[in-house]
Amino acid sequence: MTLPPAIPPWPLDHIVAELRAARSDWRSRDQRAGESGGRELPSREALRCILRELSGALFPMRLGPADLRQDSEDYYVGHTLDSALKALVQQAKLELQHVQRQLGESPAASAVETLALQTVQAFAATLPGLRRLLDTDTLAAFTGDPAARSVDEVLLCYPGLTALIHHRIAHSLYRLGLPLLGRIVAEAAHSETGIDIHPGAQIGAGFFIDHGTGVVIGETAVIGERVRLYQNVTLGAKSFPTDDDGSLKKGLARHPIVEDEVVIYAGATVLGRVTIGRGSVIGGNVWLTNSVPPGSVITQASLQSNC
Amino acid sequence: MTLPPAIPPWPLDHIVAELRAARSDWRSRDQRAGESGGRELPSREALRCILRELSGALFPMRLGPADLRQDSEDYYVGHTLDSALKALVQQAKLELQHVQRQLGESPAASAVETLALQTVQAFAATLPGLRRLLDTDTLAAFTGDPAARSVDEVLLCYPGLTALIHHRIAHSLYRLGLPLLGRIVAEAAHSETGIDIHPGAQIGAGFFIDHGTGVVIGETAVIGERVRLYQNVTLGAKSFPTDDDGSLKKGLARHPIVEDEVVIYAGATVLGRVTIGRGSVIGGNVWLTNSVPPGSVITQASLQSNC
Amino acid sequence: MTLPPAIPPWPLDHIVAELRAARSDWRSRDQRAGESGGRELPSREALRCILRELSGALFPMRLGPADLRQDSEDYYVGHTLDSALKALVQQAKLELQHVQRQLGESPAASAVETLALQTVQAFAATLPGLRRLLDTDTLAAFTGDPAARSVDEVLLCYPGLTALIHHRIAHSLYRLGLPLLGRIVAEAAHSETGIDIHPGAQIGAGFFIDHGTGVVIGETAVIGERVRLYQNVTLGAKSFPTDDDGSLKKGLARHPIVEDEVVIYAGATVLGRVTIGRGSVIGGNVWLTNSVPPGSVITQASLQSNC
Amino acid sequence: MTLPPAIPPWPLDHIVAELRAARSDWRSRDQRAGESGGRELPSREALRCILRELSGALFPMRLGPADLRQDSEDYYVGHTLDSALKALVQQAKLELQHVQRQLGESPAASAVETLALQTVQAFAATLPGLRRLLDTDTLAAFTGDPAARSVDEVLLCYPGLTALIHHRIAHSLYRLGLPLLGRIVAEAAHSETGIDIHPGAQIGAGFFIDHGTGVVIGETAVIGERVRLYQNVTLGAKSFPTDDDGSLKKGLARHPIVEDEVVIYAGATVLGRVTIGRGSVIGGNVWLTNSVPPGSVITQASLQSNC
Amino acid sequence: MTLPPAIPPWPLDHIVAELRAARSDWRSRDQRAGESGGRELPSREALRCILRELSGALFPMRLGPADLRQDSEDYYVGHTLDSALKALVQQAKLELQHVQRQLGESPAASAVETLALQTVQAFAATLPGLRRLLDTDTLAAFTGDPAARSVDEVLLCYPGLTALIHHRIAHSLYRLGLPLLGRIVAEAAHSETGIDIHPGAQIGAGFFIDHGTGVVIGETAVIGERVRLYQNVTLGAKSFPTDDDGSLKKGLARHPIVEDEVVIYAGATVLGRVTIGRGSVIGGNVWLTNSVPPGSVITQASLQSNC
Amino acid sequence: MTLPPAIPPWPLDHIVAELRAARSDWRSRDQRAGESGGRELPSREALRCILRELSGALFPMRLGPADLRQDSEDYYVGHTLDSALKALVQQAKLELQHVQRQLGESPAASAVETLALQTVQAFAATLPGLRRLLDTDTLAAFTGDPAARSVDEVLLCYPGLTALIHHRIAHSLYRLGLPLLGRIVAEAAHSETGIDIHPGAQIGAGFFIDHGTGVVIGETAVIGERVRLYQNVTLGAKSFPTDDDGSLKKGLARHPIVEDEVVIYAGATVLGRVTIGRGSVIGGNVWLTNSVPPGSVITQASLQSNC
User: Fold this and answer.
1) Residue E203 three-state SS
2) Is the model's pLDDT at E248 over the cut of 70?
3) D75 to chain F nearest CA, in Å?
4) Which chain A residues are within 8 Å of F69, Cβ to Cβ?
5) Which residue from A151, C203, E174, F49 has the fewest beta carbons nearer than 10 Å?
6) Which of D43, D53, D55 is nearest to D162 (CA)?
């Protein structure tokens, strides 16, 4: 008996061919910015794994394994850190190769490897300082929120702290020449917390974001020490109405400067390269596109009374 | 020696019985809309898995496995696509059976199976076009954001693109008669990106959402080509104050029409079946419940100057 | 032949020592609130696992395994519940020990164990009632949203329901003396849905949150029955401008009371211990810091007409 | 700049084509016994999973989850059993379909489904008896081995028990018309323990195999009660030298009958349809191809003294 | 419409009840040796995991993670060892509790915990010596097998080494009062390699087993230094024909003593408390039940020439 | 309050130091054959994964995913093969580097990479022929065992086939200069089936091993076509008693030649470079150290009658 061939449920060859044609059109149409054969990009999964290890190495007793003791702490830290840094070298190499291909260059593989290694060495050297900075953020959250019961709870539960651990790592990568890795780290925090901080933003010690969903902080924002933000605050570029030509040049300082000890309440929007003077308080839902002197108290009411 | 029986830590039988009683009350009280015995619903986990495979098949070099090459691309695409489509047939069958049970019908299992297969065949045929549409979205993000360094980075990092890959798949499922699957896909994107697009929304080529957290786009919204949106923009139904009878009929066109090349800035709210004319710019936090002609520039100030 | 020792890629000993120094400084500087040796905190991963099991035990046919039947339902419920409760006892013990250490006390391990067990016993007893409450929420979402096709779809897809399953469990834990576990549960929902409900908030039956991203509900908020909320609604504390002394006492009732059948539209902000009277409607983006009587209809326009 | 296409590391298309040709030759050459399009076979992984669940359901306190209590035992047993039986129906269906295709038949899918369900129903009914049989095997191992400290240890550690749990399940499947599933179960035990018992072998209560590696028991072997075997014992077919025609008919009784309370020491080989009389003792490395009366004591020496 | 209740595919309640009855009979029939409520036994999975960690800690460069370096070795060793020892304390506690229950005793939980901890402390102290012993075994395999290309290959590939790593750990546990854990470790090796060494066997330095399948070494065997064994060698108890009363007392020395530098070829069987003198060679398939002086060369031929 | 430091449960630093000392002694004592810093060895886990993929690519319908169809077969084969070969290049590189380090050489990394790639290219080219060979083995098992019901069952269940799939791959790797990878593959089969075939053994078409546990086939054995073997057969080196100088030279032909259509029954041992003539039958437990002419029938009886 000859069995009939199984009937294909869909024209697989045909769909594969059409998808190939779509890819081919894309590649030929936009060769300059397009993708090229055989490339690898950094991996989101790999970076999430690295982040988990770095978090554990930075805060072994609170974000490391549950049954760690102080006498075994260093073994855990050393082993985990080493593992994270080795994995990071791989990801750094992928970003650096990607940049080279974008530029049409093809340096020796060993040169890229050396640069990746040096960059991760420099990154590793920033970790102790980064831990000390995050300690100030933890204390800021603990003292700033009357509901916080312990500093341990803050690290464990507060999305603002989760976002800052990500940001301070992302910013360090960004400054050392790995902006794409920084961006992937930032988006991991964005997805988990709803807080969107560009890895380029400079943020001082003792920073606290409460609730946090919907917060957006732009690439060239500069934030001083002991600043506090609530949910849905935007520190953005004033691209409208004055900046409507559409040819905005990258790299230009275009986001706000927020000086020390400023508080900005939920829903406030601050746009453009303006300066919020030291100790100012910006009320909820305020829309602000100009600088204010130190010690200002700005509310919707105060703004509307001017018109 | 006779060991004493271990003491139960909680009255398990009692709690199980009370939970059974609660289920029983629910089932008898609301028989019409309620659940019935032995049913299966589509699975969120299964759909997340299908989405990952479809993403890889659509963008093999960027969302597929890291070490793919162009000469092995088609094998990966064909194998992955086939796997995703087979899994989708199962999920489609579950939705179609669910609908039948809601209607009190009980058609032959083979009829449901055939319909599920035909629907997935139709879905498969839309994939090449869907990839071409997403290419326009990728280019829109790349050219629209001065910070974007490469089209690869856009696909890898931008939550707006993640949301659009989900939406264009969800919309295809929605149009082919699988709205529940579409909804599950949409909520997967909502959870990951904070962007909430109803699978019914019609969105033209070259769409770009920046930052994105808090964006809500309703079921009957119609969006033209090359439109740009920022975080916290709502394109909703004007159910208040004019629509307060509470008996809103499903299916009625009740969300905005946004014509080509419109830009809507962060926090703006557009409600009801109004039309935003081609090329208009809607400023941040604007609250708009009426149509505006092509080329309009609407800001909070311009609105308040009218009062 | 003697091989050269492999060259270390980074000064691992040095970085480990510096991180140790940073931890040591932190611990000595802030001994009172700081961390102490050998402690364990509750685990986010463990609680996510417990939540998945509790959700299945509460809604076996919709959130349990796909192929459950009514005749095997009780076996699944009993087995899953028992497993979840046992795991919860461990987490409760960790929170209770943590509190003891915060207070500088060191009670017998068995006393903590007994308390943890009793607390989980009490929690287990609340589950049937909790299921009945969630049934009212499911019905509220089904009847309140014309797009909802079935109650099954509501449980499967609506982020508002996901947030409420989490909240009603978190609130039960909070009331029984496990506020840290409650907080971890609440943050799991916050991360997944963008909806941030403090575990202390009291919420009546038939509650419905549509879309939900950006919703914030504070610790002492009291919400009546059949209330409906949209995305980006804040029920917060009025800490600005009247409450600027910075020494806000914990536990004080400081968030709104929302009476039965109130509707609050997207982006509205209600701050302080004010009362929204029964059946009121608060419009989109409204900023409200005073009480309103039953049946009020508040819009931006109505507020501005007063100035 | 146009990037060169990545060079393929191997001629993938060519190798795929050659493998296709090899498959095609195989299929055309041996159509009768060969494979046909679109078939599915039972899965070893699925059966290993089913075996783990059945083992837990049969011995909940010893092979089930570590923290089970007697008051929650039935929930675990019911839930696990139901899950295992449902999975077994799927595998049974695959075997039955496979047999139909071998026979060139194509019955209605529903007929196969019904038969699979009935077979698993019958299998389920044998489980309580099977547990009682295995209890006798456990006691036999405990009393037969002076080194055994507790019956729990026997179940946990003894490869002989592991092999018997598999065999008694495999034999039940074999008798109910699922010999392929039985074979897969038997091979799982063979791989784990080195004990190779054909699922067709009939084995009485209180059977004990010590050490076990290299034991082979053939399809038509019949073993009485309280029999004991050591490593490397073969109960095989006497195919040499008397049975050298090569056309051995399947199903013929061709393996030994071992009566009650026989002991067979390591390395002994018994071949053909011979009978080892009740209470006999067969010494190590003995080679036996004829029947022996009850109470015999056979050693290498006793055999050689005959020549 | 009222849907019919789904028909149960099998009488689940009935089967569960019958299995309960079987358990109940077992428990009442054999109370002395039987199982009692709420007990936990050590876990095979947990021990396999501990073994993997211990293997890595003992041989970090060869059985640890692939990319370890000498400068990060100690961090890995310390972290992995600590993790393995902590897990081992749990398993030790379970064995000690189990023994207490067998004896009908119920000591304070803390006493068991202290004993478990002390035992694991003693075990930890044996690890450096154990590594040095295994180094001699590795060298023995390397020099003894002309096919071995490097000592690394020996550790990676030779089942004999795998069995010895397990045995030396199992023997250490056995001597420290954890025979059940030792047995589980031994059976893990038995299943993986087919080599069955009782944890009580005493084995000197430089031991080598080639091929190994079917090797059995009994509890009271004593093996000197630099001994070599091949597959299917048994060092067993001479329970037949001289020892047929069936009341063999546990603990009696009943297995062979094998002096230094003995070689025993494949299939040889040595039974009883006999002594194989230093430097003897025992040929393949030899059956030996009496002592032989140092320097003996025993073959099948030499044995038969005696009769 | 100052909390006491947690008491370390074991002297971790001390044990780590002692283990370091043991490693240091090992490395200095045996520098020539010993391990050196920073090396990587091939990974057993990686090879098991590669084997699973190669098995699927060779037999897509029987060892590939359950729901494959003929029209999607090539996509699966191409994708899986490519993935397996890429992973194999990595493992080949590790073996080649290892050999270089053993020789004290340090060639350019790129030279090793090129050699690894070329070797895997050559290996890939052998796969279609290897599939055709395995088809003959499958048929041999099917026709040789009256109990076999279908060729599919043979591939799924027979340990002999599992061992041969491994061996034919291992032998191909061995011949191409990757003997360590070959050995790892062989040991994977040994552990799973108890069949120990050295990767160097040459085995003709249509080979069948029944039951298999305890089979050992040496490095220089040469086996003709259509040969059949049973459990516990050894084809070994005659190192005793004639070969007792201990300095056996590697590579010398020292294992049997078995000509076409020979059958060797269970437990037979053939040692040394002897030839078993075409069509001979070797009985169970026979011990043979000299050549026999074609057509011989050798039994224990026939051997003993000679003395």
Assistant:
1) strand
2) no
3) 32
4) 6, 8-9
5) F49
6) D55
B224, B263 contact by CB (below 8 A): no
DSSP assignment of chain F: --PPPPPPSS-HHHHHHHHHHHHHHHHHHTTTTS--TT-----HHHHHHHHHHHHHHHSHHHHS-TT--GGGHHHHHHHHHHHHHHHHHHHHHHHHHHHHHHTT----HHHHHHHHHHHHHHHHHHHHHHHHHHHHHHHHHHHH-TT---HHHHHHH-HHHHHHHHHHHHHHHHHTT-HHHHHHHHHHHHHHHS-EE-TT-EE-SS-EESS-TT-EE-TT-EE-SS-EE-TT-EEE---SSTTTTS---TTS--S-EE-TT-EE-TT-EEESS-EE-TT-EE-TT-EE-S-B-TT-EE-HHHHHTT-
CB nearest to C71's CB, from E8, E71, E72: E8
CB-defined contacts C:E, below 8 A: 26
- Choose among D187, D255, D193, D183: nearest CA to D219: D255
The C-alpha atoms of residue E227 and residue E258 are separated, in whole angstroms, by 8
Asked if E169 contacts E130 with a C-beta cutoff of 8 angstroms, the reply is: yes
- Other beta carbons within 10 angstroms of residue C49's beta carbon come to 14
What are the residue ranges of helices labelled H in chain A? 12-29, 44-58, 60-63, 73-102, 109-144, 151-157, 159-175, 179-193, 300-304
User: D148: part of which helix (H) or strand (E)?
Assistant: none
**H or E element at residue A231:** none
For the entire predicted model, the pTM comes to 0.90
> Which of helix, strand or coil describes residue E269?
strand
Backbone angles phi, psi at A293, to 5 degrees: -70, 165
List the single residue in B72, B83, B86 with the smallest CB-CB distance to F82: B72
Looking at CA atoms only, how far is residue C24 from chain A in angstroms? 11
Residue of C72, C127, C150 to mutate, testing the B interface (most B Cβ within 10 Å of its Cβ):
C150
Q: Is E263 helix (H, G, I), strand (E, B) or coil?
A: strand
Question: What percent of chain A lies above the pLDDT cut of 90?
Answer: 63
Name the minimum distance, in Å, from the CA of B13 to any CA of chain C.
8
F6: which chain A residues are within 8 Å (Cβ-Cβ)?
Answer: 69-71
Distance CA(E86)–CA(E89), nearest Å, equals 5
Residue to mutate among E2, E3, E7, with most B CBs inside 10 A, is E3
Per-residue tens of pLDDT for chain C, all 307 residues: 333 445 788 888 899 999 999 888 888 875 544 444 455 789 888 999 999 999 999 999 888 887 788 788 899 999 999 999 999 999 999 999 888 887 777 767 788 999 999 999 999 999 999 999 999 999 999 988 877 778 888 888 999 999 999 999 999 999 999 999 999 999 999 999 999 999 999 999 999 999 999 999 999 999 999 999 999 999 999 864 444 454 456 668 999 999 999 999 999 999 999 999 999 999 988 999 999 999 999 987 776 554 4
- State how far residue B72 is from chain C, nearest Cα, in angstroms: 35
The beta-carbon neighbor of F62 closest among D33, D41, D307 is D41
Considering only the beta carbons, identify the residue of A72, A77, A80 that sits closest to E82.
A72
Angle between helices C44-58 and C179-193 (to 10 degrees): 80
- Give the amino acid at C209: I
Q: Which residues contact A243 (CB under 8 A, 6 or more apart)?
A: A237
Please list the alpha-helical segments (H only) found in B72-108. 73-102
Determine which of A296-300, D104-108, F37-41 has the lowest per-residue pLDDT on average.
Answer: F37-41
Mean pLDDT in residue range F64-88:
89
Is A98's pLDDT higher than 70?
Answer: yes
**A80–E79 C-beta distance less than 8 A:** yes
Q: Which residue of E has its CA nearest to C69?
A: E6
Contacts of B104 in chain E (CB under 8 A): 1, 3
